[in-house]
Amino acid sequence: MKLLALAALVLATVHSPVAALWPQPQSVSTGSKTLLLSPAFQITVLGNHVPGDLLAAAGRTKQLLASDKLERLVVGRGAADAPSFRAAKSLARLTLSLSKGAAFATLTSEAQKAPEARDEAYHLVVPEDGSGASITANSTLGLFRGLTTFSQLWYEHGNTVYTVSAPVTIEDKPAYPYRGLMLDTARNFFPVDDIKRTLDAMSWVKINQFHWHVVDSQSFPLIVPGFTELSTKGAYSSSQTYSLADVRDIVSYAGERGIDVMVEIDTPGHTAIIGQAHPDFVACPEASPWATYANEPPAGQLRFVDATVTKFIADLFTEVASMFPSTLFSSGGDELNTNCYDIDAPTQAALNASGSTLEQALNVFTQKTHAALEAKGKTPVVWEEMVLVHNVTLSKDTPVLVWISSANVKAVAETGHKLIHAASDYFYLDCGGGGWVGDFPTGNSWCDPFKTWQHSFSFDPVANLTADEAKLVLGGQHLLWTEQSGPQNLDPIVWPRAASSAELFWTGPGGNISAALPRLHDLSYRLRQRGVNAISLQPEWCALRPDACDINA
Amino acid sequence: MRFTTFLLAVLHVSGVLALWPLPRSLETGTSALKLASNFDIQVDVAHAPSDLSDAISRTKSFLKNDKLGRLVVGRGAADQSALQKAGSLRTLRLSLAQGSPVRSITDEARLAIGTRSEGYALHIPSDGSSATLTANSTLGLLWGLTTFSQLWYEASGEVYTVEAPVSITDSPAYPFRGFMLDTSRNFFPVADIKRTLDAMSWVKMSQFHWHVVDSQSFPLEVPGYTELASKGAYDSSMVYTAKDVQDIVAYAGARGIDVMVEIDTPGHTAIISAAHPEHVACAQESPWSTFANEPPAGQLRFASPATTNFTAGLISAVSRMFPSSLVSTGGDELNTECYAQDAETQADLKASGRTLEQALDVFTHATHAAIRAQGKTPTVWEEMVLEHNVTLGNDTVVMVWISSANAAAVAAKNFRLVHGPSDYFYLDCGAGEWIGDDVANSWCDPFKTWQKSYTFDPLANISASQAHLVLGGEQLLWTEQSGPENLDSIVWPRAASSAEVFWSGPGGDSNTALPRLHDLAFRMRQRGVKAIQLQPMWCALRPGECNINS
Lengths: 553, 550
Known about the structure:
The complex is a heterodimer of chains A (553) and B (550).
Chain A: H1 2-15, E1 27-45, H2 52-67, E2 89-98, H3 107-111, E3 122-126, E4 133-137, H4 140-151, E5 155-157, E6 160-172, E7 178-184, H5 192-204, E8 209-213, H6 228-234, H7 244-255, E9 260-264, H8 274-277, E10 282-283, H9 290-293, E11 301-302, H10 307-323, E12 328-332, H11 338-342, H12 345-354, H13 358-375, E13 379-383, H14 385-388, E14 400-402, H15 409-414, E15 419-421, H16 424-427, H17 453-457, H18 467-470, E16 473-480, H19 490-494, H20 498-507, H21 513-529, H22 540-543
Parallel strand pairs in A: 1-2, 2-4, 7-8, 7-16, 8-9, 9-12, 12-13, 13-14, 14-15, 15-16
Antiparallel strand pairs in A: 1-6, 3-4, 3-6, 5-6, 10-11
Chain B: H1 2-13, E1 25-43, H2 50-65, H3 80-84, E2 87-96, H4 105-109, E3 120-124, E4 131-135, H5 138-149, E5 153-155, E6 158-170, E7 176-182, H6 190-202, E8 207-211, H7 226-232, H8 242-254, E9 258-262, E10 280-281, H9 288-291, E11 299-300, H10 305-321, E12 326-330, H11 336-340, H12 343-352, H13 356-372, E13 377-381, H14 383-386, E14 397-400, H15 407-412, E15 416-419, H16 422-425, H17 450-454, E16 470-477, H18 487-491, H19 495-504, H20 510-526, H21 537-540
Helix pairs in contact in B: 2-5, 6-8, 10-13
């Protein structure tokens, strides 16, 4: 069904030059008339008690319309459009309104609902005759998505802002409720401004979930009230931390852009750095050779068999949960190394004393830490090993992040858990940068090769799944692990590639890469105009000549 | 042999983590030494050229603004006690060896490759008495200043080293230590090129190879041939004017860097057809893959006397814009199918009675004669000697790009060569196919890590009697998938890898190199170049702990 709708989209592409929209709306019809944006253009929101964050979003949209200054990606860059300006009508107003019976809530509160409860649909009409354009939706979040689409329709030439595709009618809503991006801020640190710029770019492609892998074995930059020793001892430096005010700033910045922030405190592995403040809580800290005890240096995992450690983590989760309004909270659970516990005398003694196995102890640890989250009204999220490798009892509504391989999706679905696609073989942005471990000149990246946007775009979220299993798919995300990244290459390594999954999970799969490329060029150029260093996907010669650089052109 | 010497010296004498490229001879101590707040650099050179004075000013500015904390846990906090009783260095004295001519850095940097004097000696006593930097040329003094500026860290407002005294005698293993940038597939503003030249000079690179035009765009405004840029640049704002070129060349020269321009011919010239359709065969012919290695197809009609004259004139005009003694005429990836289907070329060949190869020889003679008429030396890509039957002057410089395996064949033909092999030095490899409608890997997969480049042996399979033919090498950025957005991050610190191979000589240990390369990358960031992280910072602060077997 989705595929049929897409076939109709391909037709739309043929009939009109709308190269701009990303993600592609579910239904779009466009004309071929030029329409100018009036210098007096206004955005009006109808209704009472319009939330401030929606008004702010309308203000930002107006600002982008004025500052994008993007020329059309054609040979001559829009000079050929200029003659049509004289006879063209001007659009003076865009009116936003909620559907009958719907009441305003803040954009932020709509974005922070559980994924399945978010209403992101909208209806956008831009008449060719200059009469008012309109966006209607059932929620402020839908209105916001419509504003995002609206801002992608316009180009500039000679100080005139215009489209050549009027009239435009769009009916749109996402195929999947979870469309994310994960950033690791532990391997290398990212200042708040870098995160905010990333959130901006995410919102421009309608990504609605920031998965913040905030801490890991290498550093603990998160300042947690009551647990400040973790960052005092575990951050790279006092300036490389996220304060409570920083977190609030990031969370509200995200919310105002339709993005929910799911924090991850990865446990019980990936926790070596906790040993800096609490040496008693960590087994095999910095044990050598690290390769025996961890997938990457430094080794060190929580002594989860120890009730004190379990309580500490449950309390830490409770506190971190208070910092983040999202309904989702990831407790991690990947890459647990058992060698680490085999050589850890306290763990072995505790297991002996309790008469339980390591797996049984892991179950207890997980139950208690998840109970802490559930007590705060959160839904725990875990990495796939917690259902595929370990014998842990999880609440059925625990979503599972599939990362090791897309081949594991089926097995996760068969457990009946909801799932989020994050497979390394499709969505890992760090792959292909060569090995980063030292003294290893011949090392390639473990997940070679580089995942191109085309490869990610070709992902099928329901491959091998039954119709019932397909309903478990919440969506998916690209991920940036930052062993080889920092603020220096954040934009170029993420953009525009991460937009690939944004469209996949908004528009639905089955998109044609040849038809998508001109739109992705357009998005990249627009991202650059907005200050995000998205890379060039091809020589500009190709960007100005759709299809001329295709393999068989 | 020489490599054994310097490695032993470093390993046994000190733990200097900072210097890149590693000096050929280095002794350091373990005393702390502060830089006095009134530290100054004095030049004991009569009539010191202004670019040397400028280099001194830049060095002083780095000493003040680098503000780099040592890459150890605590970032230098533990150095405080040693600093309390440390001496203060007030003066660095620069002088030229007796009898050395006083020329500008710029003039020294533009001498013919192989005749530049780049050596220097640097001595920094631990007691605060004056440090000295001596050389036979201002270029040597520049490289000494570059080394000096890498020795210092900052903690709590003090600029200091913990490795005084320092004694360095240094000179490069190879004269050609380059970086190539393609500004045709995507355009780079002058400021990006200048920032790249800065970073190059910090690792003592001597040669900027500017692949300025190609089939996709012609951003170079050439006097007398301005139609090429006005019709062939992506936009009138995406052009290098003659003034921009002067600016770039002067900026490079002042930083010890010579600029070798490349006008790639007769292939890679489709865009010339925008102004001169008469000179280009198979322009934008489809399917492009029959006529070119990448779109758009289009090559100069080199069998045509008119096209040959035009190209020789163009190359002559371009050569006049660049003071370097080297000019590259390219010569890679010539596609013969393009000419087989070109009626004009076939008619020209018939009229002259020449084969395509014979016509190529005539063409190459003409363009190279234009270069030689200005006292310059042509440079070509490897196909010109390995695939084509072209007579070249025996001082022609040949760039090996297809594979490192081809270097020996070039040397066997007795040509001087520059290493630029895709399997070691291509910075663009590994990012996936860029051709549309295709899901594939990059043709030169995988990504070339700094470690891989670092293991390159410039003399592999080259006989001792031919070793003198190796001028050096370069890392290259082809920009199908690059632009100003990722220039720094795709180039740095990786390109520093070959800078050390060709300065210090090969055989370096990537394990001991990594902490120094971290140091360089952190310092580049402090100076505004977006060098990427090679590892988590946890590893950067703990040398050796993230090695494969640690």
